[in-house]
Amino acid sequence: MAAAEAAPESSGTAVGGLAAGASGGGLLGALGCKRRSAGEEERVALQKYRELLLRGRGISEKQRQWYDKLCFWSDAPTKQGGRIFVLAPRGPRGQTEYSIDIWELLAYSLTKLHDHAVTDAKPFAIVWVQLSNHRLGLLGLRRLRASLHPNYLSNLEAVHVVHPSWAVRILRVALWPIAEDDYWERFHSHERVEFLDSHIDTRQFRLPKDIYEYDKYLDKQAMEINDQANKKFGGGGSGLFGGEEDNQAKQQIDQMTKLLEERGHDKAE
User: pTM for this structure?
Assistant: First the structure.
């Protein structure tokens, strides 16, 4: 489903771990098996970071032209004033399942981020357009976080995931009872581009046309699912379980939907 990575990893994701790291260790830090000293961790991270930069700078001109469409700086700032970097891996025609070497793309992205985030140490935000495919799992994101210059985490304003994968949705629900407020202030998930408006002026912030087309596809898909649910639960038929069990299932779905919407207003949006 996802693109090839440099090492195998689990299918789960922890996109919020990068954001959590900005507040000092965060949730991913707790997943480490053996803790190094702070000085040793930074030394190792800087060495890995240099290796990623070298890989990114060694990419061919033809490949750079392709990656320039998948990762770029926006001209619009966040409402807090930070610069916005967009990461939107996808195929030439917006294909969501198109194979991409995600580590090569990330390495090239770092060459673009370096001057602003590291050299100038200025605030920035990441808008990660997933198109329902996160492409980077738990171990991959933990590895990335351990390969960054410290200035990335200290100057990161927030990570905004657009069109989140189901794994990201589940992650947010799972972390709800245990994550601190600072985590939610730095890790946002948006079902549609327009929902970025709480943090970014979407009249100024623009994305490639195919991403808005995916917005429309999701809207159409949601309407079809809603129609099917109405026929199933409101049509008086036997349903999946039949009778009272169907009614209980619908109530649980409605309660979960309301719960997520409330959490979205309080924490994400």
Answer: 0.72
